[in-house]
Amino acid sequence: MPELPEVETMVRGLRMVMEGRRIQSVRVFDPFLLEKVSRRRFEQTLTGKRVRRIWRKGKWVVIELAGGFSAVIQPRMTGGFRASMDGNRPAHSRILFRVDGPHHHVWFCDTRRLGRVALVDEVELAAKLSADHHGPEATDITATELAAALAGTKRPIKAALLDQRVVSGIGNIYADESLFDARIHPERRANQLTAAEVRKLCRSIRRIIRLAISMQGTTMRNYFNVFGEAGSFQDRHRVYGRKDDPCVRCKTPIVRANIDGLLGRSTHYCPTCQRHE
DNA sequence: CGGTTACCCTGGATGC
DNA sequence: TGCATCCAGGGTAACC
Question: Which residue intervals of chain A bear CATH 1.10.8.50?
Fold first, then answer.
């Protein structure tokens, strides 16, 4: 579920409960999520290590340990962390990190089990976070960078925005919201946007993603931060989840459609404000 | 190579 | 109430 603002919120919470602390134990309840590492090695490698730093790249969480190893977590659709002071297991909890702070228990929960967890050294970490997987961050991508990434592809602009190598951190919600803000139709071919449109889209992306971070992300159904609190950016959605509602700019009913090349994900837009020409 | 598709999972909502 | 069907904010391998 989470896109960049939700993952950023997640990471800020994790820092409060884990950063600088020592991991006392790790328990993997569902090894299915582990990527190329056994349950035993994952648990043993993390146990006893101090958490040096927690950060994110796009929608991926990095828990950096003293000594050089890092855990890289991809929450994908339904993954998230939950801190607690007692040992009660939350629903769908898959991994437990016990630390030496007041929030002794940090759980990784994932309803659909699509999330992935890797254990990497410095070299593997650099490879995982390279341009093979991630373009510039949506929080600060420049118009020059965006223009360069879009020039080479005739895919629909929305498909390009969902490609993490073009811009890192955007998912279905923020793609729709950014395109509405920039008044660009989601099916426009990426390489046919004018320079002015690319600049505008770039500003919209940065503005919306930053605003969403300040509002702790979007909670539609099951995203909550580390402390179980909902975000509030859903109150500012202009198109996502607003099918048939009047456009805030022109009153035209918002359309929800399936467009090609998006793996069946739904697309919301205003057919009047976002013209296809 | 760029672009598209199938698929990995589970559970809640919707429809009959 | 029960059951079938559809849908979900992601990412990647395999394919054309």
Answer: 143-269
Q: In whole angstroms, what is the distance from residue A127 CA to residue A12 CA?
A: 24
The whole model's pTM is what? 0.96
Contacts of A204 (CB under 8 A, 6+ apart): A178, A179, A181, A182
**Domain boundaries for CATH 3.20.190.10 within chain A:** 4-128
From the CA of A5 to the C1' of B13: give the distance in Å.
26
Q: Are A79 and A95 in contact (CB under 8 A)?
A: no
Is strand B within 7 Å of residue A155 (CB)? yes
Euclidean distance between CA atoms A47 and A43, whole angstroms: 6
What span, in angstroms and rounded, lies between the C-alpha atoms of A95 and A87? Answer: 12
Q: What is the pLDDT of residues A2-46, one digit of tens each?
A: 999 999 999 999 999 999 999 999 999 999 999 999 999 999 999
Q: Tell me: the pLDDT tens digits for A53-102?
A: 999 999 999 999 999 999 999 999 999 999 999 889 999 999 999 999 88
A147 touches strand B (CB under 7 A): no
Residue with CA nearest to C11's C1' atom: A76
- Domain at A4-128: CATH code: 3.20.190.10
Q: Are A47 and A97 in contact (CB under 8 A)?
A: no
Q: Class assignment of domain A143-269?
A: mainly alpha
